[in-house]
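Entry type: protein chain
Record version: 2
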Amino acid sequence: MHASITSAYLARYRSAAADSPADLLPLTGAQRRFLITRRLAPHDRSDVVPLFFAYPRGTLDVERLARAAAAVAAHHPALSGGFATVRGTPVLRVGGPSAEAARITVAPGDTARAALRRALLDRPAGGPALRLLVARDPDGEEELLALALDHAACDEQSLGVLTAELSEAYEGGDAPAAGPGPQALADYRQAVELQLAAEDAAGGTAAQAHWSRRLGALTGAGGGAATSTGMLTERLPAAEGAARGAVFPALLDAVGAAAHRLHPVDGPLALGYPWGGRPPGAPAALGCFLNTLVHPAGPTPTDDLDALADAWWDDLDHAGTPFDEVVRAARTAGAAWSGALDAMLTLEDLHRRPPLVLGGTPGRETHLAGRPLAAPLAVSASHGDDLLVRLAWDSDRFAETDAHAAFADLLAVLRQHLYARPRPGALA
């Protein structure tokens, strides 16, 4: 049996932290992937997670934002100190709050959206884990706030924690602490160690056999990060009743249809999606406790969503297998796949995230086109009072007309699965 990637990392971490065990914390598999990717491609900014909110002009006080950001970051090890490499081993070095707030100047003839986009791209390597950036069009009646997080420090569960705590800290105005207290550090360490134990256990023979079988035919069509991107958006009705449980498998099938419109190959494409949460019994520490799973998206949409959902549930039984182990399993089975993703899918349940309320005003969430992507095609869906679907694509690689055709295919498959008359035995 091959040596576990996770166990090899833990051995290196223990050696690196031997001289200062209190100051260096281990990283989850997802955190290590983000940092390794950043080291290999230092100009890539696709691993920043931004939320964008609009407020009436004059609502936001940048000094109060800065205090709130520092106060929140000081409670969380993942938002304090900084990621580092010690003896070739990636770690989190304990320190003070890693946060900033700034107003971005918008020149005449420029726009707040373009200015924020450039500011996010200009994030320096090793820059703050939490950034709050404010910009306003010269004659605009609204100001935009970008809440940007280093993806190595957050996941979807973290976003809800942050919007709630920032709202409270902005109203309170308390001075930030010097850094996380002993209990916060202990909780974070315990959560990461439990995550690593789960990742190590999920890399066994049965998991390798599962992913070899599922991904051995991947084509390696040509994934990779994208810098110049476009975006298309559509609002669909919220899925109700039995259809609500079918949203994610329906999205897998729909994104697969869009990906094959842009990558016209006969075999399956590598469709990645984040999945996961804190391990059972772990403290609710803010951080990045997810894994990237891979779905083999076939060349044609399915007529049997139940069968696709059953295969997806089988994948979730092996959701803890680290991504690097999954890539190794696929390549061992003969896949001509480097590990680069052909497409990405994310689904957020908006009911899990409280609004960002600043100065008594809830922010109106908005979205910016043109941000870098971790794959040449990325679909984001937000499920709340409706189902907001956004498709972003690599505009250097794909023509806009092809992207529109891909989006039309995606929406057609979604409508068929979620809103057509239910079939007997439909997914519950």
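Comment: Residues 78 and 153 are 5 Å apart (CA to CA).
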